[in-house]
Design brief:
Elements: H1 3-6, H2 9-22, H3 32-45, H4 52-62, H5 68-90, E1 99-100, E2 103-104, H6 106-109, H7 112-131, H8 139-153, H9 158-167, H10 175-201, H11 205-232, H12 235-238, H13 244-247, H14 253-276, H15 285-296
Antiparallel strand pairs: 1-2
Helix pairs in contact: 2-5, 3-7, 4-5, 4-10, 5-7, 5-10, 8-10, 9-10, 10-11, 11-14, 11-15, 14-15
Bound molecules: geranylgeranyl diphosphate (GRG).
Residues 49-50, 52, 82, 85-86, 88-89, 101, 158-159, 162, 185-186, 223, 226 line the site of geranylgeranyl diphosphate.
């Protein structure tokens, strides 16, 4: 299944336009350093990518008819955090990768210091965007968005998962450990992307829980398909080096369950994710489509 079969081109264009606008350098003051930091932020954040996380925010918010101007902006803030994590993950001190989204990584194109700063700037800018009244008129809603994203991206979320992943070694991890690592490293940001739809709408706790269950399932399935692509995909297809998990001795579901078992687990998670959406009948089809895309994705 191709991304263009499932993702709406106008929605993707609106997300792209928002990220571009958010990363436009204010004209003053004139300084080469400011030109360089914006250039590096834009290089990584406007370099393609599936835009899965903001797309999920928009679709989850659509369930409650949240104005697109709010959901696109809130989703774009999450994408800035995602782009920061990719820049830092590719650094020599972490995965030491030279290819991302089919292009040289930030530290190769610029240098290590610029890549660190570009990541830092994308991270901090995300919260600047969320705290702005343009994201939502109600300050309580904005505070919840900031709090939930900080939690998902921080030590009990993506950063904590990345630290666990760095310490983990193949052969030492059980299914439970791998699930915890992946649910923090990759799953937390995917989960908050969906929860944002409910938070923007001030939806009920039951509705937010249903979004959370859907997101937790697709997040884990997403990581399993990422591991499968690392084993059987190519750099031309994925835009990043493959075979990295084995090279870095990273424990994955493919090690634990084999390729077939990992595919079966991903399929079961996707079925459960679609079940979780039943509370949103009849509006759940677009989110169900994303779940199917995750299972069959080739990039
Ligand atoms: C450095 C704090 C810090 C965290 C890094 C997200 C992450 C944690 C590392 C990325 C490494 C990786 C390959 C993780 C597996 C799943 C994943 C997040 C893949 C990349 O996301 P996609 O496929 O990428 O959505 P695009 O380019 O489409 O946005």
């Amino acid at each position: 299944m191709k991304q263009s079969d499932i993702f709406n081109a106008d929605t993707l264009a609106a997300i792209e336009k928002e990220i571009d606008a958010l990363l436009t350098r204010p004209e003053a003051p004139v300084a080469a350093g400011l030109d360089r930091i914006y250039k590096a932020m834009r290089y990584s954040a406007l370099a393609g990518g599936k835009r899965l996380r903001p797309y999920l925010t928009v679709l989850a918010a659509d369930l409650f008819k949240v104005p697109r101007e709010h959901s696109v902006r809130a989703g774009a803030a999450i994408e800035l955090i995602h782009c920061y994590s990719l820049i830092h993950d590719d650094l020599p001190a972490m995965d030491n990768s030279d290819l991302r989204r089919g292009r040289p990584t930030s530290h190769i194109e610029f240098d290590d210091a610029t890549a660190v700063l570009a990541g830092d700037a994308l991270l901090t800018e995300a919260f600047h965007v969320l705290a702005d009244p343009a994201t939502h008129p109600d300050p309580e809603v904005r505070t919840k968005l900031v709090r939930e994203l900080a939690h998902a991206a921080g030590p009990m979320g993506m950063v904590g998962g990345q630290m666990m992943d760095i310490l983990a070694e193949t052969g030492m991890a059980e299914a439970e450990d791998i699930t915890l690592i992946q649910s923090l490293k990759t799953g937390a940001l995917i989960a908050v992307s969906c929860r944002f739809g409910g938070l923007l709408a001030q939806a009920s706790p039951a509705e937010i829980d249903a979004l959370d269950r859907y997101a937790t399932d697709i997040g884990l399935a997403f990581q399993i398909t990422d591991d499968l692509l690392d084993v059987s995909g190519s750099a031309e297809q994925t835009g990043k080096p493959t075979g990295q998990d084995a090279m870095n001795s990273k424990p994955t579901f493919v090690d634990l369950l084999g390729e077939e078992g990992a595919r079966e687990k991903a399929a079961a998670l996707i079925e459960d994710a679609k079940q979780a959406l039943s509370v949103f009948t009849p509006g759940q089809q677009p989110l169900a489509g994303i779940a199917d895309f995750i299972l069959s994705r080739q990039l």
